Structure formats: C-alpha cells, structure tokens
Amino acid sequence: MKNEGLINSGETFMEKERNEEKSLIGRSMLKVDAAEKVTGEALYAGDLRAEGMLYGKAVRSPQAHAEVTGIEIRQALSCPGVAAVLTAADIPGENKIGMTGIKDTPVLAEGKVFFHGQAVAVVAAETKEAAEAAAEAVKISYVPLPVLNDVKTAMAGGAALLHGKPGNVSCRKLVASGDVEAALASADIIVSRTYETQMVEHSYIEPEAVLAEPLAGGGLKVWSSTKSVHMDQEEICRVTGLPRERVHVVAPYIGGSFGGKSDLAINCMAALLCLKTGRPVKMTYSREESMEASTKRHPMILRYTHGATKDGRIIAVKAEITADSGAFAGYSAPVLTRSVLHGAGPYRVPNVWIEATAIYTNNPTTGAMRGFGVPQVALACERQMDLLAVALGVDVFKIRLMNALRPGDILPSGQAVPEGSAYAETLEEARHRLEDELKARPLSCDEAWGIAGHYYGNGRTAAANPGTAVMSLLPEGKIHLSIGSPDIGQGSNTLMIQIAATALGLEMKNFILTSADSALTLNSGTTSGTRLTAIVGRGLLDTAREFKKTLLSHGARLLAERAMALPTAFLTEDEKGPCLSSGSARLYLKEIAAELSQRGETLEVAGRYDPPTKPLDDHCQGIPYASYTFGVQLVKVKVDRGTGKVRPMKVMAFYDVGRPLNPVLLEGQMEGGVAGGLGYGLLEEIQLKNGEIKNKNFDQYLLPTCLDVCPIESWFTQTLDQEGPYGAKGIGEPALIPTAAALANAVSHCLNREFNRLPISLEAVLLGE
C-alpha cells in the first residue's frame, strides 16, 4: 500500500488531535485476535460443543414451486436416535422472519414452497448421521406448480402471482430530480445501452452454524455465525414467543460474511428444537445446503440512457432497473434504494430519473451482499462513461473529471456533497500513476487498461443508525469496551481498541473488549453498510472522550482529598500501569477503581452517535448518508484471443477514505474487495435450472484463487471527513464496487467490442454470448 496523496485543510485539526491525544491512528496494528486464529485456538460456531448435544437437520424441498399437500413424520420419529421432528404447525410464535421491515420469509414452509431447498421440516437426533437419516425419512407430498424462472417470465401476463402482488412486484424505488425528458430532448449526445449482471454467492469459508442451549427458567443461549446478535435475538423471540430477556445471543469468531449471515432461519430452527427437547442443539450447513438456503446478490437488467452536451457535460441520466428478488422480499427494498441513489455514479447530473423494480421469482431469495446494489449500477454507469468519451472524442479521464462530484455539488437525492470528499483528486492521482505505468510498461496488442469510479454512502440509508458503546473501569485498572457489532473477520475489534486507546492516550494492552453479546452489549447495529469505522467508531470515540473526562474528574477529586492535587492532571502510564499524573504524584487506575468500589460507585459511560440524515420522500429526496467514500480503480487485462481467457495483470486503486486509521487493515480490505470484484467480473455465476442451483459447491462454482488474483496497489488521498472518527470513512464495500466495471471497460477496449454483461466468461469473449 502506498499512503500518498493530498492533505486538505483539515491537517491543522488533525495535528491538534495528535497533540492532545497519544495517537495510535495511522499505525498498522496487528489484529487483536491474530494469534488465536493462526494457532487454531479461535472457536467458530461450528466448533462449539455442549454436553448432551443433539444435531439438527432441515428437510428441504426438491421443488422450486409447489403445494405441500401432506407431511408424514412418523417414520422419521421412529428412526434410531431421533429426539424431535418439527413442522410449521409446531412453531409457538410467528413463522415469518426478515431483517428488514418486511417479514415474509417462513422459517418452515406452510402450504407452499417457493424455492428449491426451502425448509419444510426440521429434525433433531443424537448424531449428525442420525439427523440426516431422519430428514430423509420425512415424507412430504407435493403438487408441482409452474416455476417462474426469471423476471421476464414472472412479469408476463398470466404468470402465477407468488405472493398476490400484481406483476409479482416485490418493491419499486425511484429517485427523480430535475426534468429528465426535457434534458434528453436538448442533449447533443445520447448514449443508450442495456446491461445485465448475474446472481452470485457470498462464498464465505465458514458455512452458517448455530448452537442453541437451554437455560434455567426456559430461556435460551444461542451462539451464531451472524453479523447482528441483536437482530437475531429479535427474530428468535418472535418465532419462539420468548421475551427478550430470556434469549441470549452471542457471536463467536466469524469466518466471513460479505453481506450474508443475516437471513438466518437456521437460528430459529435450532432454537425451536432446543425448546422442544430441552437439550442443546447444533446445526451446521453443508456447503451445498449453504448454497441452496442462503441469499444471493441481486441479478439485474439495467437499461441506461445518458444525455450530454457537445462540450462533455452530462445533463441527464435515465435508467430502468429490473432486479430478481427471488422467492421472498429479503433485502430488496433497501438494496434497490441504494441502487437508485448511486445509479448516476459519482458525477454531477442535474436531471436524474432512475427507477428500480424487484420481481418475485422461484429462484433463491436475493439479499445483502458486499456493495448492496451498487456494483450492478457501477457496471452500467461506468460503461456509459466510456461510451460517452468515445462519442465525444475525449479520453476516459477527461469525461470523468469534467463531471466529477465535488464538495457542494448536489446529488440526485438533493443532498449537497459533504466537505472532505475528494473524487476529482483520486481521478487525478489515477491519471498520473497510469501515465507513469505506461511509460515504464507499454501495452502489447493483447493488453488494455480499464477505469471505473464510484462512491458509496456510509451506513444505513436515511434511517436511524446509531453506533453505541460502553466503557467501564475494571478493578485491575484496565478499561472494558463493550461493542454490540461483531468483528466478522475484517478487524473491527482491533480498530475499536485503537480508537479508544488514542482517545485516552494509553497503549492498547490496557483495554479489554467484549463484542456481539446481546446480554453484555448495547445494540450498535449490524456489521454492514460500511458503517463500523464511520459510525460505530465515531460512537466509541465520543464515548471514550466522555469517559476520559469522567475519569479525570474522579481522579482530581481523589487527588484533592489526598492533598496531592496540582492545577492540572493528565492520563498516562508507566511500568506499573495506567495512572493519573499530577506533578510528582501518581494515582493508578486500579487505585481509583478500588476507591470507587469502597464507596459503592462505579465508573461507566455509555455513548452513541447517530449520523445526521433526513428521511427520503417518494422520489428519494432527502439526506440518505452523512458521509461518502469515493474511489477509482484501474484494471489491466491481457486477453488470449485463442482461448478467450481474460487474465487480470494489475489493479491500481485510488480512494478517498478520509484519514486512514490502520493502514494494514485498510490494505487487507482493499485486496479482499478487489479479489471479490475480479471473481464477480470474470468467473462467478449461480447456474439455475427450473429454480435449482446446479453448481452447489466450489468444484463447480468458480472463485478466483491466488493464481487468478494479480498484484494490487493502493493509494489513499487523505482528507478529513467531518463525521467519522479522526476524520475516517469506511472501505469495506467500496473496495469491491468498481472492479468488475473496470474489467468490462478494459476488455471492451482490448477487443474493440462492447462487453455489457457479467461475468465476462470464455464463452462471452469467444462467442459473444
């Protein structure tokens, strides 16, 4: 990683911060859980065991769309080792779950199944093998119904209405500003194309797993591979009928999420079996089961029209987007809201009309995935930018620079671009670096560079989105941090301790962190939306500063009582530990803790930060996000015209992330995001036949390996975000968003042929498919 670029006027403020607080910001710190993961001591949900544990297994539909006319469980109950068989009729609470406001996904099917692999029953047995045998013994009668394979079939006249919605419309979102039709009528240049993106899998190494254990008094403790323990707690309570105080959810180590692990019916199934049997129940999906049951990235058809003046100013963007919602609503509404809000790209466009419609089909439900609807529109928008450059006879950087969003420009939502946004600066840096690269390594006839830019709002869209934290003083003089959002592998726990340690001017060893425990942490929201650094980190920083004030106040009082006080005292540490220093006097934090304990007092501070947003109206006018991450990626490809293989040769990424907090974590996020983007652009695609996934394991579902990922270089243009902790913005999702679009532009340049569909497979290159 090359941490170079421009520093804006916020530099003075940052220097002030460094003087006031012993800064660990900007330092590459080792992950706090690195040793446990390297040595194998880290326990994931699938590693957990409990005395007397049963194994759960779901009975899944072999039909993509059918009526369920009978469920016979007697044979399964008679199988050796079987403790329970449950159907929807056995659910004591509600049988519909969902992580958004739409609760339409059954834990166990009732009356009908809507996708291949939908759970109809669930069994518990003494061994994994016994559970699998019992699941096979459950006999379910189906009457097949017509399968709606794709959005076109589902929208056709006479198609069955899966959920009673006209046209099988799951949701519709629109952003509209200005007068698009008038602007297009006056445009000198019109570029119109249709783009298509595919359905893809999250492909986390750790499959979904859960262990539910009964507690005294009829409660439950649930260990889950999840990105939100508090949301899981809410859903388990709704399904089981238990009150919140009797359901305790904990996230152990998490083996990746990438937007998944949030639609977890598996948690509710294990909880139901645990309540039924009174014994611990563990469920772990096989890879094939994970592929069948988990949500996917929305495939989209995107019809785009750009209008520009002859001098290159974009004056209008009109787009119609159709997305496959799959069998249930899932995350379609918030995903499509992001798609339309970001659908004009990081460009100044006065007239915008972008409508997105999600359609129910009998395919797997689509949900949250890294980028949350923006990688799809980035493909369309950035291909359009290259086509506009060709039509106008300018280079691909010039068309982007002359239209680049700058602070104060108005977004399609009506919001002004916040100060500290630096898209134009990243473009300039990219252009200069590419010029140097081309001088050093001229292109062959089989090589080309492609460019794509994007921006991404940090946090949930135009909704309450608080990041909360609790800090308390422990008896041994260390400081306890409590954060509700789990670290899903990206290193957020490390970053949180870094932020707190900097705020207090102490080393990280003085902090103990508890995260993702519904009984011990406040709800700080899901690990999603590129929100942990920008929002939860800011909530923690505000908490830490208040904690420091309170600590100094208590310490000053105690020093005064001991007649040791001088006019000023400050927090520091020596070989004995953290302490307050006032002249030659030292008052150690463990002494303060002991004194407070003797007086029956504690030192604990809870804080929260909710970014300033404004709800959206029907045309998505409002303030959806407080801050935005901007970025540009350049991808170099080499195309073998004989085999059709596209080989990425190099990626250069240029990002405005505000102020980098931990460079090595930032670099890791960039490399992981780019790798995912390369897979999305070239290899990955769920293959469906009559609603059934045909490539259910990684021997057939193609993922990029170390041999497919090229060298990746990153540059970060330092700015100061006005909202994030120490001026930082998020990087988790932005790291992936433009990669596939840059690939498509590169291959299009190399072969002088348009590539407007993903993935860019061998067949697409050779046969134009």
Which features would summarize this protein structure in a list?
alpha+beta, 19 helices, 25% strand
- Please compute the radius of gyration using only Cα atoms: 27 Å
Total number of strands:
30
How are the strands ordered across the major sheet?
3-7-1-14-11-12-13
- What is the beta-strand fraction? 15-25%
Shape label: globular
- Our count of helices gives 19
- End-to-end span in angstroms? 37 Å
| Largest sheet: number of strands, sense, barrel closure | 7 strands, mixed
Overall mean pLDDT stands at 94
Helix fraction?
Answer: 25-40%
Ranges where pLDDT stays below 50 over 5 or more residues in a row are 1-20
The SS-based structural class is alpha+beta
How would you explain this protein's 3D organization?
With 769 residues, the chain is an alpha+beta fold. 29% of the residues lie in helices and 25% in strands. It is built from 19 helices and 30 strands. The chain has a 7-stranded mixed β-sheet, with helices on both faces. The longest helix is centred in the C-terminal third of the chain and has 30 residues, at 532-561.
